[in-house]
Amino acid sequence: MTKLTFYTAEICPYAQRTQILLAEKGIDHDPIEIDLDNKPDWFTKLTPTKRVPVICHDDFILWESTTVNEYLDASFPGPGLRPENDRACAVMRNEIKYFDNTYLPVLYKLLFEQDIETQDALRQQVEDNMCFLESRLEKLQGHADQGPYWMGSKITLADLTAYPFFERLPVFTHYRAVRMPSSCHRLNRWLNTMRQHPTAAASSHDLDWFIPRYTAYANGTADGLSAQAFRNGTAN
User: How high is the pLDDT of residue 154?
Assistant: First the structure.
């Protein structure tokens, strides 16, 4: 039997993506929790990004959550988390790329921003981006009774990509008054579906757990690698 080691951190939404996948596919693995504020030297030598998640599959080491998740889905038995045809897979990759490279940088830039007027502008941009995500769900899901997952009736890597960050939406409401627009019916339905999905629910925390862990983001003092990227308005 091949051995899989999963280097993770409970606070990290990127690692949570892989945590959900491992549970969804029932992949046996050894989880190793990494203290992101005090990373051991041996861990920083595993990956040039010095971030989680990282996996070691026998002697094969891989990092970056989207790459890790595609590899694990292709390499292990269990429910497939990619669409069944090449065009749908390409669309799913575009959804993930937009979410990571456009939606998330603005969301976290808002959390770091201390100027009130700039916060207002960024908040509007975040809510506009949610409306764009709503339009994508309308396109991908088709009729109103279809879905309720991102790509349709089946959970995919797109759902695993977005859920950890939407789970944290109450944090952004608490610190920056971000709210999902009332017109985002499908997006709200999708989020409620994911909150109840067993493997996603098992990885979740409540707002009281998150608030103190995001204080340094909200007051602009967080200085980890992910924080530095988001402060500059770039993806993790």
Answer: 96
Threshold 0.70, pTM exceeds: yes
**Domain count within the chain:** 2
The answer to whether 89 is a known catalytic residue is: no
Residue ending a domain, choose from 15, 43, 75: 75
Query: Is residue 103 domain-shared with residue 164, that is, in the same domain?
Result: yes
Q: Tell me which residue has tokens 């700039």.
A: 118
Q: What percent of the chain has pLDDT over 90?
A: 87
Active site residue: 12, 56, 131, 184, which one?
12
Residues of the chain above pLDDT 70, percent: 97
Strand 30-33 and strand 54-57: the pairing is unpaired
Instruction: Provide the greatest CA pair distance for the chain.
Output: 57
Q: Which long-range contacts (CB under 8 A, 24 or more apart) does 122-129 make?
A: 123/176, 123/177, 123/178, 126/172, 126/178, 127/178, 127/179, 127/180, 127/181, 129/102, 129/103
What would the pLDDT profile of 204-236 be if each residue is shown by its tens digit? Answer: 999 999 999 999 999 989 887 777 777 776 665
For residue 20, what are the domain limits?
4-75
